[in-house]
């Protein structure tokens, strides 16, 4: 989630450095997601619960597949030398849209996970137990957080300021246009 805002937060920094930071944060996310997925599978095995039967698990698996696919395509397109500037510019709109879509899907996965936890773990959820209220509060805070992230990512006045940078070959100056 931090990665989606890196170009907005550090909008006066060189794009090449931001690309590597963006890639590193996303790679770290993939590593943490892998541990989380392994922990969920291990837990389900331990307590004899079926795998990937709920909407939460389907959305989560879809989010993971799309996120890893987005990472691979983004890495090849923007960090692999040899991809033309024209191709990079053409793919950028798709990359941004897909990133926001995956972010929204991840938030939806969290909502369904919170709902599952409340329904399966709390005996009298309708009696407003403290844990149920906490789950509801977390969901409301997630809505606020996701709304702020999407607001900042889509605001034209928060877009990264294009800076002239050296082309990877070290000779010509290039400037990406939005």
UniProtKB/TrEMBL annotation:
Residues 1-154 form the Cytochrome b561 domain. GO terms for cellular component: membrane. It holds the Pfam family Cytochrom_B561. Signal peptide: none annotated. Keywords: Electron transport, Heme, Iron, Membrane, Metal-binding, Transmembrane, Transmembrane helix, Transport. The keyword Membrane applies. GO terms for molecular function: metal ion binding; oxidoreductase activity. The chain crosses the membrane at residues 20-43, 55-81, 93-114, 134-153. It is found in: Membrane. This is Cytochrome b561 domain-containing protein. It comes from Blomia tropicalis. The lineage of its organism: Eukaryota, Metazoa, Ecdysozoa, Arthropoda, Chelicerata.
């Amino acid at each position: 989630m931090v990665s989606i805002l890196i170009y907005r937060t550090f909008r006066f920094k060189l794009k090449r450095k931001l690309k590597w930071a963006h890639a590193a944060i996303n790679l770290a996310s993939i590593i943490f997601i892998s541990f989380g997925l392994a922990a969920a599978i291990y837990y389900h095995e331990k307590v004899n619960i079926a795998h990937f039967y709920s909407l939460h698990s389907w959305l989560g698996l879809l989010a993971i597949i799309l996120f890893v696919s987005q990472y691979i395509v983004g890495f090849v397109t923007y960090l692999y030398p040899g991809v033309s500037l024209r191709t990079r510019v053409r793919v950028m709109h798709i990359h941004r849209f897909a990133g926001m879509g995956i972010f929204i899907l991840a938030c939806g996965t969290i909502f369904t996970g919170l709902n599952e936890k409340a329904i399966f773990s709390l005996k009298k959820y309708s009696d407003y137990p403290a844990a149920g209220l906490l789950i509801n509060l977390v969901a409301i805070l997630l809505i606020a957080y996701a709304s702020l992230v999407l607001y900042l990512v889509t605001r034209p006045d928060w877009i990264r300021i294009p800076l002239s940078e050296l082309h990877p070959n070290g000779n010509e100056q290039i400037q990406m246009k939005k």
